Amino acid sequence: MPDQPSQPPNDRFKAEMPDIPGLSGPAPKPAGAGGPWLVMAGLVANRTTGENVAALIVRLPNGSSAQASGYWSFAMKPAYGNCQLEYIDDLTKLRSDYGYQQARHPMVGNPCSLSLYDPLKYAAIPGGVLARGAVVQGSDLRPPLGIETKVHGKQILAVRME
């Protein structure tokens, strides 16, 4: 009997899009009625280490929900350090807890270093690559570890992690 095709490793990071785009996993934390800034949490298998990594996917305000460019997917643990990143849609918290007075939209924060990542900006990382989530405040060295996604029909699939 021929080998059965294995299930893709990205099946942990998918969602039905007709109502709310997002991921499988814990209940969503909606930041809007299915539109921009909607956030979903889930786990992604890191094929290099074999561990399951907590991740978020954010529906961006610029871009189509039918294209991968309409989303930002990233690991919830920063590349360096042990703090769990947090998605902050409360602009008052960005201003008071992080001291970032320029806050105009949700951001991702590192509560240990008080670094903030802007989902709408890119930063250069080693290798001449641009990564979404530029550090706009704080001492963190780079944006969160990215997760490449593809939109396939009514699902959002994680393809690979940095």
Question: TL;DR?
Answer:
By secondary structure, the protein is mainly beta.
Overview of this protein structure:
This protein is mainly β and 162 residues long. The protein has one helix and nine strands. The strands form three sheets. A four-stranded antiparallel beta sheet has the order 4-5-6-7. A hairpin with a 2-residue loop joins strand 8 and strand 9. The chain is globular. The N terminus is likely disordered.
Topology diagram in text:
Blueprint: E1 39-45, E2 52-59, E3 71-75, E4 86-88, H1 91-96, E5 107-110, E6 115-125, E7 129-137, E8 147-152, E9 155-161
Question: Which structural traits does this protein have?
Answer:
disordered N terminus; 9 strands; 4% helix; 162 residues; 2 domains; mainly beta; globular
Number of domains: 2
> Gap between N and C termini, in Å?
36 Å
The share of residues in helices is under 10%
Q: Look at the structure and give the mean pLDDT.
A: 82
- Please work out how many helical segments DSSP would assign: 1
Q: Which sequence of SSEs, written as H and E, runs from N to C?
A: EEEEHEEEEE
Oligomer: single chain
Gyration radius from CA atoms, angstroms: 16 Å
Strand numbers in spatial order across the main sheet: 4-5-6-7
Uncertain runs with pLDDT below 50, 5 residues or more? Answer: 1-33
Name the beta content range.
Answer: 35-45%
The biggest beta sheet, please?
A: 4 strands, antiparallel
The geometry reads as: globular
Please provide the count of β strands. Answer: 9
Structural class per helix/strand content?
mainly beta
